[in-house]
Design a protein that fits this description.
Length: 248
């Protein structure tokens, strides 16, 4: 009964556009999970590795990094530490979320496990706490279903699908994210910050493991910080200043 009530509450709280955006994102997560599962099995891992990782870790960048390091001959311990470093971005995520979004009591354990890039972004984009909580859980539960489902299915067909790049599955996720933010790029300041972040990530990619260039790209957010307006030149005072000039 609680699950049915909770799902209905999310459905009634979020508008149709918000639900559609979350659905598209979860669909992209499913397809990139297909690629992850296929790559893991093709790299020599047994099926249970991507299946367990996708459910317990629930973080695509660190899982891809772990598989890549071990497949290249690296130590599993070094791969796990690299994954933890990539997932360190969850610390500021947790600080950015308002209290109560991840739930209370025992539900907070599940809510914290659902924390990922997508659920945090959708939550912070909402205007009030009630919608933030609904968006966070809707996206988090969607990713919890789509990421392991895609990884297991990809692992099952991984033995037959050796070259996942030929199908372009790895391009699905960034393509959907770009479609979601293209309207915001009309703003000049947002566009400059996005281009600066992309330049930082591209410049760092040849030198850093997967996931870290994205962390460095966050430095471009300083371009979105507005300088406080001088009290003597605020837009609200412009009509009064114009009248004073006319009187003179």
């Amino acid at each position: 009964m609680f699950k049915i009530y909770f799902v209905r509450s999310i459905w009634r709280t979020l508008d149709r556009r918000g639900l559609a955006d979350i659905g598209l994102t979860c669909l992209a997560v499913f397809f990139i999970g297909l690629s992850y599962g296929a790559i893991a099995v093709a790299s020599g891992f047994p099926l249970w590795v991507p299946a367990v990782q996708s459910l317990l870790v629930l973080a695509g960048a660190s899982e891809f990094l772990f598989v890549g390091i071990v497949a290249a001959g690296g130590s599993p311990i070094a791969a796990a530490l690299a994954g933890l470093l990539v997932n360190s971005r969850h610390l500021p995520y947790g600080l950015a979320l308002p209290p109560g979004v991840t739930g209370r009591g025992w539900r907070r354990l599940l809510g914290t496990h659902l924390m990922n890039d997508e659920s945090v972004v959708f939550a912070l984009a909402q205007p009030d706490p009630r919608r933030k909580r609904a968006a966070y859980w809707a996206c988090g539960l969607g990713v919890l279903a789509c990421w392991p489902g895609g990884a297991v299915l990809g692992a099952l067909i991984g033995s037959a699908l050796h070259d996942t790049s030929a199908f372009g599955l790895d391009a699905m996720f960034p393509a959907v994210i770009l479609a979601l933010i293209v309207k915001d790029l009309r703003d000049a300041r947002t566009r400059r910050a996005a281009l600066a972040g992309a330049a930082i990530a591209l410049a760092a990619t040849p030198f850093l493991p997967a996931g870290l260039p994205v962390l460095l790209a966050l430095a471009a957010l300083v371009l979105l910080v507005r300088a406080p307006a001088d009290a003597s030149t605020r837009p609200d005072d412009e009509p009064a200043m114009a009248q004073e000039r006319t009187a003179r």
